[in-house]
Amino acid sequence: MASHIVGYPRMGPKRELKFALESFWDQKSSAEDLQKVAAGLRSSIWKQMADAGIKYIPSNTFSYYDQVLDATAMLGAVPPRYGWNGGEIGFDTYFSMARGNASVPAMEMTKWFDTNYHFIVPELGPDVKFSYASHKAVDEYKEAKALGVNTVPVLIGPVSYLLLSKPAKGVEKTFSLLSLLPKILPIYKEVISELKAAGASWIQFDEPTLVLDLEAHQLQAFGAAYADLESTLSGLNVLIETYFADLTSDAYKTLIELKGVTAYGVDLVRGTKTIDLIKSNFPKGKFLFAGVVDGRNIWANDLASSLSTLQALEAVVGKENLVVSTSCSLLHTAVDLVNETKLDDEIKSWLAFAAQKVVEVNALAKALAGQTDEAFFASNAAAQASRKSSPRVNNEAVQKAAAALKGSDHRRATNVSARLDAQQKKLNLPILPTTTIGSFPQTLELRRVRREFKANKISEDDYVKAIKEEIKKVVDLQEELDIDVLVHGEPERNDMVEYFGEQLSGFAFTVNGWVQSYGSRCVKPPIIYGDVSRPKPMTVFWSSTAQSMTKRPMKGMLTGPVTILNWSFVRNDQPRFETCYQIALAIKDEVEDLEKAGINVIQIDEAALREGLPLRKSEHAFYLKWAVHSFRITNVGVKDTTQIHTHMCYSNFNDIIHSIIDMDADVITIENSRSDEKLLSVFREGVKYGAGIGPGVYDIHSPRIPSTEEIADRINKMLAVLESNILWVNPDCGLKTRKYAEVKPALNNMVAAAKQLRTQLASAK
C-alpha cells in the first residue's frame, strides 16, 4: 500500500532557512551561502521521507518565499515596476516582488485560504508577456534524483493560479483573469516536457480553489485547461491535489472528469463529506490519495479511526488504487517533536509534528496492506484514551461560565457615536490623530534579554529594568515624533499570541514548534489542550508602567479571543466556538483590570478574524456570529469613556464589513496600503461607518520608507470616502519586524503628512 505527503515545512527544524534569508537580505552572506543552506534542507527532507518509506515524495514544495510567487516567477509574470528585462529570474527581482525595494513597493500579500500562511498575489492583465523564466521545478526534481530520490514535482495548477490572482493596477476590475489561460498553458507545457525528459513519472498539480464556491464558468476552466494539457501530460501519472474543505458535488464531478488525470487528492480531515461523493461515484482504475492525516494541526492521528475510514474507501476504489496521504501540506504544522525537550510526557504523547505525521502516514499504509505495527497502534490508542480522560483538560468552573454566556449578545449600552463624544472630551485628541499598531522593532539586544531571562541567566529585577528602559526609549521616541496615542512597544513579547497563551491556563508551549507565516517570518503557535482561564493579570504592570512615563494616552495592548484561537493549535475535541468563548472571558477580565489601572485606550487585536472565515459561504454566518460575539464579550463591561480599539491585517475585509461594524469597537485600524487601498472601495460603494477608522497609510512588511507626499496622498484618498472626524492615521501593522533606521523616518513622514492635512482641513473651513 502506497503513501504520499502533499508538502513539507521549509524553514528547517531550527529555522535554518529564516536565518539564512535574513543574513542574505542584510548583505551579511552571499546568494551561494543561501542556496547551500536551502540545498541542505531539501536533501534532509527528501531523505527523511524516503527513510520513512514514503512512496510519493514531493519536490518543488520548497520555497524562498512562497509557492505562488514561485509560480509567478516560473511564468515570468513580473510587474513592469521591477525593471526585469527577461531571462532567468534571480534573487533581486524575486525578493523585490516579495518585499519591495528602495524605489518600488512590494506586491500585495494576503492569507492563503483560511490559514495563517501568506502568499504574494499575482498582478495580471491582458498585456502581460508570459515566458518560462524560472526552472526551479525541474532543477529541484533533478537535484533529488541525483540524491537517489525519485520525487513527484509539485506545481500550482494553472486555474488556481489565475483564480488567486488580481487585475494589475490600471486594469479593469472586471477583467477576466481566466481569459489568460491560453497564454500560461504553453509555459506549463514547457515545464511538463522538461520534467518528462528529466525522468519524472508523476506530477502533482495543486488546485485548492476547487474547494471554493465556484461559478459554472470557473469550473469549466478546469476542464478546458487539462484537456489542453492532456497530450503533453501523456506518459505521466497526473495527481490533482485539493485541500482545506469538502468538494461540492459540482466540483467533484469536474475533478473526476478531468482529461489525462490519474489520481485525485482530497482532504478527509476538513472535508469529510467528500467521502459520500467518493462512495457514490469513483472512476474505475483511478487512484485516490486519501488525506486522513491532518496537515494543519499537531494532534496525533487517531490511527484506529483513520484505518477504519481507509478500509471503507478501499472497498470503493480498490486496494491497489488507494494511497494514504496528508490532508494538505505539512507546511502548516511544526517540524519535529524530537526537538521538544520541555513538554511534559503526557502532553507530548498526544502530539504529532510533521516528522511524526510522515511516520503516521506510512504506518497507516502498512496497516492497510496487512502489516500493522501492533506496538505503534497500541501506543497511539493509549495516548488517545489518556487525552480523553485527563483531568487537566477539563475545568468545570470555566465550562459553566462559558455556558452562561448564552442568551445575551453582550453589546455596550451606549451607541458608538455617543461613546466617541465622551472619549474625545477625556482624551482631547486632534483631528486625524496619529498612532501605531503596537509593536516597535525587536532589536538583537532585546531578544537577548528575553532569551537570557527565560534561561535564568539574568534575574527578574535585571529583566524588568531592561524592559522598562526599552519602554522609556519607545515612549520618548513617540513623543519626539509627536504621535498622539502612544504604545509601549511590546518589548516583553516575542509573539502576540504566545505571550498571552503563556499566562493562560489550558495552554502548552513548544521550544521549536515554529511555523512559517510568510517569507522568513515564523510564529510559534501555542497549543490549546484544555479549558482556558486567566489566573492573574497579564499586561497591567507593563501598561501602567508605560502610562506613568507620559501624559499622552497609552494604549493597553491585548490580543483578541478569535485571533488567539486562529493563531493557536486548537483542541479538536470540542467545537472551536466553545474554546473561543472561554478565551473571551479571560480577555474580558484583563480589559477590566486595565481600565481600573487608569488605561483609557485599550486595543484588542483581531488580526485573524477574517482568516478564520470558512471557505464555504453557507458557513460564514455561523462563524461570524460567534466570532464577533466573542469580541464584544471582551469589552462589554467598560465605561463609555474607555476607548476600545481593534486591529485587522492582510485579508480581504470588504465581504465582512458589516460584521466588522457589528463588532462595535470605537476605533478600528486596518491594513490598506499594500492591497492598493482595496478597503476604501467598500466605502465608495456607500457603506456607512460611524466609528473611528484608521486604514493603514504605509506597508510595514517592506523596508521601503514612504515619503510625506505619498502618505498625504493616501490620507486624501481616505478623506474622499470617510469623514475627517472619524479618520485615524497609522501604519498597516506592528513594527516589530522593521529596523529603527526604517521606522523613525517613516513615522516622521506619517506625522508630517497628518499635520499637513490638518492645516489644509482647518483652512478649508
Q: Nutshell version of this structure?
A:
This protein has 765 residues and is α/β, with parallel strands linked by helices. Helix content is 42%, strand content 12%.
Key traits:
765 residues, eight-stranded parallel β-sheet, five-stranded parallel β-sheet, globular, amino-acid biosynthesis
Name the helicity range. 40-55%
Task: Please indicate the percent range of residues in DSSP E strands (runs of 2 or more).
Answer: 5-15%
Q: Strand order of the main beta sheet, please?
A: 1-12-11-10-9-8-6-2
Q: List low-confidence stretches.
A: none
Structural class of the helix and strand makeup?
alpha/beta
DSSP helix count?
27
Q: Quick one: biggest sheet?
A: 8 strands, parallel
What is the count of β-strands?
22
Distance between the termini: 77 Å
Shape: globular
Question: Overall mean pLDDT score?
Answer: 95
> Mind telling me the C-alpha Rg?
26 Å
Function: Catalyzes the transfer of a methyl group from 5-methyltetrahydrofolate to homocysteine resulting in methionine formation.
InterPro entries: Cbl-indep_Met_Synth_N, Cobalamin-indep_Met_synthase, Met_Synth_C/arc, UROD/MetE-like_sf
Family: Belongs to the vitamin-B12 independent methionine synthase family.
Enzyme class: transferase
